[in-house]
Amino acid sequence: MTEMDQQVIANGNCSGRVVEGPTNPMVTPLLTDLYQFTMAYAYWKANKHQERAVFDLYFRKNPFGGEYTVFAGLEECIRLIANFRFTEDEISFIRESLPGSCEDGFFDYLRGLDCSEVEVYSIAEGSVVFPKVPLLRIEGPIAVAQLLETPLVNLVNYASLVTTNAARHRFVAGKSKMLLEFGLRRAQGPDGGISASKYCYLGGFDATSNVAAGRLFGIPLRGTHSHAFVSSYMSPDEIIDKSLRSADGSSSCEDLVSLAQTWLSKIQWSSSLRGIFGETNQSELAAFTSYALAFPISFLALVDTYDVMRSGIPNFCAVALALNDLGYKAVGIRLDSGDLAYLSCEARKFFRAIEKEFGVPGFGKMSITASNDLNEETLDALNKQGHEVDAYGIGTYLVTCYAQAALGCVFKLVEINNQPRIKLSEDVSKVSIPCKKRSYRLYGREGYPLVDIMTGGNEPSPKVGERILCRHPFNESKRAYVVPQQVEELLKCYWPGSSDKPREDLPPLKDIRDRCIKQLERMRPDHMRRLNPTPYKVSVSAKLYDFIHFLWLNEAPVGELQ
To answer: Where are the coiled-coil regions (predicted)?
Structure first.
């Protein structure tokens, strides 16, 4: 038997598909809380560690005051599970960290531990999801399932939160705008930055500035220059090589600086633009020209280092027109400060005047990118004010999820040895829904999702055209009959362990992104709106409702009055 075959069997991968390890090498079996190991030891000591358990991973409330969430992080969960094994060094560290009374046999047990007896059922990554419905169902020996709790919650929590944040920014910006993730420098550490870039792309952003994420995940890269580049130039005399060959290679301009200065003079004295600006900052013109010489086919300039309308825009246009003479088309400008709505409108007027005055086709449609601590509220305000921005560079508020720190995923035991379990609380929202369940999404005649329903594992599936009673899990007065026009089962097997159950493939990131966009487009608009969105209905079947309340009464102690 080859080493590869041994790895396949060790991973419980009977289909022969070997899954790579987690993207972040810090994601190991030690990425968990100490109490997972103390519980695992207690299970082992009581000879309970092999008992078959079922856990649900879900969240209780949608983030950002909205009524939807986008599920992300599944691929990284499967990468962890497929490669879950302890090294000798890790076992030695666990031994040092636990009390000295722990028996050697437990560490021998850890030495042979993997996830070949674990099965993972999940909603597809990139799906729109809702509270209480399991995102992941983990079935397996209780000790190993418990060791998976913390890393799985960690891998899903931030991934789903930042993907949802990205999707909300996309919804406010609109489909036609280019969204660029610029958050690496403000992210919570390297892993926060890498994860944010990946999941913002999944949530609908078009590109990132993060070069490492571009290499790892194939995300398109975008970026220009900073204010430092502009202010580093003192004068056009600093540019040594001023020559540039034409786009078709048929000719050459020996002095692009002089050509740009000639165009600047023409703009200044043109009939439609006369009086708008006087003398521009020549060091800025030098910086723009130098950048154009370096990147003639992708020239995009940051125009707010000194003064947008009196210097940045005229200087940019002069260089763009010089490039145009040589057959190149400039990309556009970036605004990073000031009144973005007003400045974008004024810049657009300037570009259109250039196009009309000098007969340069398409100049009026020059791209305008805006940055400067943008968030959902800023985008919404710009839409209400009216603007001419084509692309947004968004960083801090996006990647840090400034409006909400965490999603609040939980991992609850719902069944052990085929016996349903329930977690009770005085706070009804924290009461778990017991037993191994199946989840379905029911669609109405207009094609919108109407309700998600959870049923017991042995109940028949809802059928198209057949009326089904959907009940709120805990509020007896909230119930409705639904006649679904389409029924979609949500939980599919993504890790079968050593069983021969069919397994879903992990799709490429771009396919997950496409799924996310299509799912969001399919939602009813009132569920998606920013202000006062309509709550989406999550329900249980009548049979599961009765069982929840039977088990609740059975497990809750009866009080005694004296």
So the answer is: none
